[in-house]
Design goal:
single chain, elongated, 18% strand, alpha+beta, 137 residues
């Protein structure tokens, strides 16, 4: 038995060049959009949340802790950061719950889910823009 061979013909194109700039821009913007949506979900002022609801906003510390950071051109991380005003990592207690506190709603997951329909087409377009074909000479 011989090994099967696959031939790929690029037609009149020699190679493809990949530019990360369009992707970096869309990923950064998408991370900021998810951050904005997550902050909007926890922005109910003065209301005490019940189990399964999104956390209310009394001091605004959770609201300010939700940040977006771009790790590389292809990854943006949006999560609540531990701030100096937090003695412990408070967002974990809200998400997982404790003995005396029932878990609250998944703010970050719901924010990403809400933004996904807008993010995917932007990323697809950025991938097309990032791929530049180099013609044969």
């Amino acid at each position: 038995m011989s090994n099967p061979t696959i031939n790929v013909t690029l037609g009149r194109w020699k190679t493809a060049d990949f530019d990360k700039k369009p992707i970096r821009k869309v990923v950064r913007r998408s991370g900021l959009d998810v951050q904005k949506t997550a902050r909007r979900l926890v922005n109910r002022k003065g209301k005490v949340s019940k189990a399964g609801q999104y956390p209310g906003r009394r001091t605004g510390e959770l609201f300010r802790s939700i940040r977006s950071k771009q790790r590389n051109p292809f990854v943006a991380v949006v999560k609540p950061q531990k701030t100096a005003a937090m003695k412990d990592y408070y967002p974990l207690f809200l998400f997982k719950g404790t003995k005396n506190l029932d878990p609250r709603g998944d703010v970050m997951g719901d924010a990403l889910e809400a933004e996904t329909p807008q993010i995917v087409p932007k990323l697809e377009r950025a991938l097309v823009d990032a791929l530049k074909w180099v013609p044969l000479k």
